[in-house]
Design goal:
By secondary structure, the chain is α+β, with helices and mostly antiparallel strands. It has one domain. Helices cover 29% and strands 18% of the residues. It has a 4-stranded mixed sheet with strand order 1-4-2-3, with no helix packed on it.
């Protein structure tokens, strides 16, 4: 079993309430990156906005997969054509939310929001909610 299945499998035991919903695009920079060693050097605050700023400044490991994906799709990404909803978890519907899946898409959206580029006003997400979200090791 690789890292990704272990990372995701640990969510099942939390028995979160899962639903689809939307977040305002202006809230995307406030999302949190997972509490993983590969993100901490780029975003000590764990804020997505800080993480994206480091990607744009090309700080840290240039071989990090999400950094390579970000650089590859940033210019061509069209938010209105995004397929699949990013996955986030939080303790309550008002957040804060930690990203589980969709880091590259959310990073590009964050950059576009930060730079005043056109994005949909709301972005569809799959959200796992519940008090036990905090028990996820990467929360």
């Amino acid at each position: 079993m690789g890292t990704r299945p272990k990372y995701l499998a640990s969510l099942v035991s939390l028995q979160l309430s899962w639903s689809t919903g939307e977040i305002a695009a202006r809230e995307i920079p406030g999302l949190r990156v997972p509490n993983l060693d590969l993100f901490r050097p780029r975003a000590p605050s764990r804020g997505l906005a800080e993480f994206v700023e480091s990607l744009e400044a090309e700080k840290g490991d240039p071989d990090l997969a999400v950094a390579a994906n970000y650089r590859r799709i940033r210019g061509a990404f069209r938010p209105g054509r995004m397929r699949g909803a990013p996955v986030v978890i939080g303790e309550r519907s008002g957040g804060p939310f930690t990203i589980v899946e969709g880091m590259t898409r959310l990073s590009v959206l964050c950059s576009k929001v930060t730079h005043g580029e056109r994005v949909p006003a709301r972005v569809r997400v799959v959200a796992g909610l519940g008090a036990r979200a905090r028990a996820w090791p990467f929360y």
